[in-house]
Design brief:
Oligomer: single chain
Structural class: mainly alpha
Helix content: 55-70%
Strand order of the largest sheet: 1-2-3
Number of helices: 19
Largest sheet: 3 strands, antiparallel
Order of helices and strands: HHHHHHHEEEHHHHHHHHHHHH
């Protein structure tokens, strides 16, 4: 169980260095202005999925965890999650990273997340909750097979584990093409991966990199010109004549760490911890709480590790630790001003919607989008599509100019 601290530390430190702890990063994703998350996730899948299924075809055992495909509940949950993400700028896991980075609005997001998880705990045992999880429930399906036991993905009739590996190769190629050809910035011409390979950037991309460095370090700790923070925040991000493999390599680190988790017979998830906390504090006798208590693994440990890893990175590597000062995300400030109470309300309310949707869908950005899509889970692909649709629509209306 304690290995979860180490695993969470790696993911928290890597993701904080990338910038995921800053809510502006995900708000800009929702506004479709900065698509680094898309490149990192798809590149991580391209690297890790063939590794997972290649080792499985060779006889290595993994703790598979594709979520069940109950179409209506997963779809509605994904829509709620995407709307909450666009408003708050947080994933369940990035809330813990933001606490490690010293972000004040993340404190309010924690309470919103726990309340959202508690709401699903109450709804789950009602007829409406049972209808959501049982209607059109096709079980835990992946591309080419079905999850029939903790350690077994059973290929469909006529297929073998080798065939699943072949499907994963095709899947990886598709993910790589998305990562390679999707421009990072709105108005830009290249993805980070393509910039690294071609070693050139347009003036718009250089300006966007500099703007990114500014908001990532806003309110952070000072650093000198010879520090690693200088290189991580400015040099690798803004120079057009050097490679920026550091930013792209985060994708491989996170993806392969999830494969390692599955090899260690655990699953990667973040939002389960909120249901566990809600159950322990308020709803211990509810049916959903009992399910969580029975099935939870090292998720609370990995969340603590995520916080610790982000804190380590923010203090000793990137120097982005904000000491819980009032730092308002620029996109939020442009739309709603610098009123702290309004930002806290958005952080709380968005996190509430996000966690309510995550628990309804039985997974979040970690359980569905990262580890689910890594396993080629059909429920994960549906959830991802619903999240992006709701995220883009919500951001269009929430952040449009007055």
């Amino acid at each position: 169980m304690w290995v979860g601290l180490f695993i969470g530390f790696i993911i928290g430190a890597a993701a904080e260095a990338w910038g995921i702890a800053n809510p502006e990063t995900l708000i800009r994703l929702a506004k479709w202005e900065d698509r680094l998350f898309v490149a990192c996730i798809t590149l991580g899948l391209a690297i890790s999925t063939p590794v997972l299924y290649g080792l499985y075809a060779a006889g290595v055992g993994f703790h598979f965890s594709p979520k069940p495909l109950y179409v209506i509940g997963v779809g509605i949950g994904g829509l709620l999650f995407g709307a909450g993400l666009a408003i708050s700028g947080y994933f369940p896991g990035s809330i813990w990273m933001a606490l490690g980075e010293g972000r004040r609005d993340a404190v309010y997001a924690v309470f919103g997340a726990i309340l959202g998880a508690a709401t699903w705990t109450v709804l789950y045992q009602t007829p409406a909750g049972q209808w959501l999880v049982n209607t059109l429930n096709f079980g835990s399906l992946v591309l080419g097979g079905k999850h029939v036991d903790t350690f077994i993905i059973q290929p469909f009739s006529g297929l073998t584990p080798i065939d699943l590996f072949g499907i994963s190769i095709v899947y990886a190629i598709a993910m790589f093409l998305v990562a390679y050809y999707t421009p990072r910035y709105k108005g830009g011409a290249r993805s980070c991966l393509r910039e690294n390979i071609e070693r050139r950037s347009t003036p718009i991309e250089i300006q966007k990199h500099m703007d990114t460095a500014r908001y990532l370090t806003d309110g952070g700790l000072p650093y000198n010109d010879k520090s690693i923070a200088k290189k991580m925040n400015e040099y690798y991000a803004t120079e057009s004549n050097v490679t920026r493999w550091f930013m792209v390599s985060v994708a491989g680190i996170v993806g392969l760490t999830v494969v390692l988790e599955m090899f260690l017979h655990q699953i990667f998830g973040e939002s389960t911890t909120d249901s566990w906390i809600a159950g322990q504090l308020f709803l211990p006798n509810f049916k959903y709480s009992q399910i969580v208590f029975k099935g939870i693994g090292w998720e609370p440990f990995s969340d603590i590790g995520t916080l610790m890893g982000a804190f380590f990175s923010a203090v000793f590597l990137t120097r982005r630790f904000t000491s819980f000062r009032n730092i308002i995300p620029p996109s939020w400030a442009m739309r709603f001003g610098n009123n702290e109470a309004i930002r806290f309300l958005g952080s709380f309310g968005g996190a509430y919607l996000m966690l309510f949707g995550a628990r309804m869908a039985d997974g979040c950005a970690s359980g569905h989008i990262l580890s689910g899509d890594l396993q080629m889970a059909i429920s994960g692909l549906e959830f991802t599509a619903a999240v992006f649709a709701a995220m883009l629509i919500t951001a269009h209306f929430v952040y449009r100019k007055r």
